[in-house]
Automatic annotation (TrEMBL):
Stretches with biased composition (Low complexity): 185-195
Protein name as annotated: SHPS1 phosphatase
Record key words, sorted: Disulfide bond, Glycoprotein, Immunoglobulin domain, Membrane, Signal, Transmembrane, Transmembrane helix
KW Transmembrane (keyword) present: yes
The Ig-like domain, residue ranges: 21-90
SUPFAM superfamilies recorded: Immunoglobulin (SSF48726)
Sequence segments annotated as region (Disordered): 183-235
Residues annotated as transmembrane: 123-145
Source organism per UniProt: Sakesphorus luctuosus
Signal peptide: none
The UniProt record lists the keyword Membrane: yes
InterPro entries listed in its UniProt record: Ig-like_CS_Receptor, Ig-like_dom, Ig-like_dom_sf, Ig-like_fold, Ig_sub, Ig_V-set
């Protein structure tokens, strides 16, 4: 009993908050001498406590920070979940003559809770900039759409009259069909002065005698004749 009077168990953490999915570290150290017996980590205290870690057990998510140490019993709990919330105790046990164990020392306990991830100011700024860009793109698209609709209301080319030489102005038919159709429709409005001029001209033909060629049923003494035709258009 005297050799265990200088034994100390130190559990420094009072409260710890950890994010879900992260690793929780619980610190516990001992000093001095004591009766033989294991050191365990328990969740809760009393009859409903649960063993979180001991050297002789198998705990996949829990590992010791310093393996095989007789003074440092700090542990790491990976992938912390909401159901892991509770108060954790570092407990030193001593062996009994009957073969059982009893509590020799225990720490003050560490209350563990979970907290949500804090919103990073940079993420807020990025969200604001993204919203601004979306609104700007919407306004630009709306402006282009309205401009396109306004441009399609009127005719893209002006209508009017075109003077062709000395003839009276002829209305232009813009964008009313193919170029050939436009020219045909425009030519129908031209006066028929050229045709009248051609009718007043005298057409004649001076036919030269063709070389004689023997033909059946024609006398040899017949020679080619020269003739002219005149046509005067009535005025």
């Amino acid at each position: 009993a005297q050799m265990s009077q200088d034994f100390e168990l130190y559990q420094p953490q009072d409260k710890v908050s950890v994010m879900v999915g992260k690793t929780l570290t619980l610190h516990c150290t001992v000093s001095g001498t004591s009766e033989p017996g294991p050191v365990k980590w328990l969740k809760g205290w009393g009859s409903d406590n649960k063993t979180v870690y001991e050297d002789t057990g198998s705990y996949p998510r829990v590992t010791r920070a310093v393996n095989a140490s007789n003074t440092d019993f700090t542990i790491h709990i990976r992938n912390f979940q909401p159901e892991d919330v509770g108060t954790y105790y570092c407990v030193k046990f001593q062996m009994l003559l009957s073969g059982g164990i009893e509590v020799f020392r225990r720490g003050s306990g560490t209350e563990v809770s979970v907290h949500e991830a804090a919103v990073v100011p940079g993420m807020v700024a990025a969200a604001v900039v993204l919203c601004f860009l979306l609104l700007l793109g919407l306004f630009v698209a709306l402006y282009l759409y309205r401009r396109k609709r306004q441009g399609g209301v009127g005719s893209p080319c002006p209508s009017g009259l075109a003077a062709m030489g000395s003839f009276p102005p002829t209305p232009l038919q813009c964008c009313a069909g193919t170029p050939s159709e436009v020219l045909d429709s425009g030519s129908s409005h031209l006066p028929s002065q050229q045709s009248s001029k051609e009718e007043n001209d005298i057409h004649y033909a001076d036919l030269q005698p063709l070389p004689t060629a023997p033909r059946r049923g024609r006398s040899l003494g017949t020679t080619g004749t020269e003739y002219a035709s005149l046509r005067v258009a009535a005025k």
